[in-house]
Amino acid sequence: MTVGSGGVAAQLLTVITMPVITRLYAPDAYAGWALLMSVVIIFTSVATLRYELAIVLPKTHDEAANVLVVCILSTVITSLCTIIILSLWGKWLIGGEFYEEMRRWIWSVPPLIIFTGVYQASIWWCTRTQEFVWYSISQITLPSLTIAGQIAAALAGWQTASGLIVGTIVGQAASAAVIFVFVFKKYGPIFHSSITSRKIVQSAHRYRNYPLYMTPYTLVGTLRDRLVYFLLANYSLKAELGYYSLSARLVNLPNSLVSSAVRPVFFQKAATIDFKSMEDAINSALRLLAISVVPFWILFLFHSKTLFALVFGEPWREAGIYASILSFPVIPLLLGNWLDRAFDVLGRQRLAFTLELVFSLISIVALTVGVVFFNNMLLAVGLQAAVLTFYYSYWLNALFRAATFNRNKLLKLIGLVLLVGLISILISWLIALILPNILAIVVNGVIIGIGVSAYLIGQWGYLKSQF
Q: Which residues, 6+ apart, have CB-to-CB distance to 42 below 8 Å?
């Protein structure tokens, strides 16, 4: 609840202000910002060599402190290497059409890498020490300052990609500073007494599976998700890249909320007890998510274009098509993404990497075929979404098998999703048939809200006993 409250507040803030941002910035502005941030995200995905995940695992704070230093050192080295890479291949990364607009901002990539690496390392230290209040504070600080910076830049006349980038730099720098200062101030004595060059090297070696397996795993997944931005930049209009960027961000909001609220608590708990003992709680959580999310997803599919035009402004109506396509893989991802650290707990990083590598390559091929051979971005995005929908479903099955969980429960979960989905489709179709668009959305939303709330209230006692 502590971590989740921060996640809820951050997501609510993002949702509430998003209609303001989309009215201050046109799809073209979103396109340039999304492209530059794709470059940042690719580098930040490997900056820490994923050692931040290992901060939770050591039995003593002394060893964990040395792992944290490994994270920060890796981040600084990656940032320095990025300067060289951008000097040589910056124009190729951004693309000719965007380079003139973005070239003065491309040098924001190295500091953003450092800010993000420090933030991630500090967040996982808070997870280790169960400082969930500060974890929650950092969750709120990041979007608050980012959005404030973006609005201020637009009001100052920077209603281009530059304004969005300025806000991102402000938010990332400030949130990293806040959480790092807290960690250093409270746990500074541990760092001073335990960190040595010899222990740093020992920690880097002991947890070498993270750079060996989790770093390639993360990089492959990031390239899979971000390649589409570069393809859109070269094969489509700027507006289409803007549509895709907003859609991808929006449909991932529920996943981000659930993951940020549950993942750190789950990982901390799973690292300290027998994983098999968590089977019932995990199955309960999966059922809870399925019943809570699927009806709202069906409602969204029925009215995506209308909702986008209503909420974000008429120029964003066509983004609803992209959002509908992208929402399909989000459902199985939402169900299982908060469990992704389970492979670390089980010591099956190699399996996780193999799955990510194989399906990411298939996904990239599907996307490229749609763009290059059919010259159709919607088809390309649809092909990639189909591959990812199957992947995220298969991933959950692989996790259950690795953990020796009862996989019949997964079949029941699929049946539950189909049943809830069919009932929701019937209700949404009947309401859309009878009522006009806006009224249909309101009535449908109220009915779903009442139904889901009644279910949650009825399950409250059981859920308390499980969790």
A: 219, 222, 223, 226
Bin 402: left if φ > 0, else alpha if -120 < ψ < 50, else beta.
Answer: alpha
- Apex CA 71: angle with CA 67 and CA 76, to 5°? 145
In this prediction, residue 462 carries a pLDDT of 67
pLDDT mean values, one per 10 residues, the chain (467 residues): 70 85 88 88 90 87 91 93 86 72 84 93 88 83 90 90 91 91 90 88 88 82 83 79 87 76 74 79 87 91 90 88 91 85 80 85 87 83 92 91 89 92 93 89 93 85 64
Q: How far is CA 180 from the centre of its chain?
A: 22
Q: Could you tell me which residues come within 8 angstroms of residue 314 by beta carbon, excluding any fewer than 6 positions away?
A: none
Which residues span the domain enclosing 77?
1-207
- pTM for the model stands at 0.77
| 371 and 230 Cβ atoms separated by less than 8 Å | no
Amino acid at 276: K
State residue 118's pLDDT score: 93
Looking at 156, 176, 207, which one is the last position of a domain?
Answer: 207
Query: How big is the chain by its Cα radius of gyration, in Å?
Result: 22
Shared domain check, 380 and 313: yes
132: which residues sit within 8 A by CB, 6+ positions away?
A: 2, 3, 126, 264, 265
- Residue 186 sits in the same domain as residue 309: no
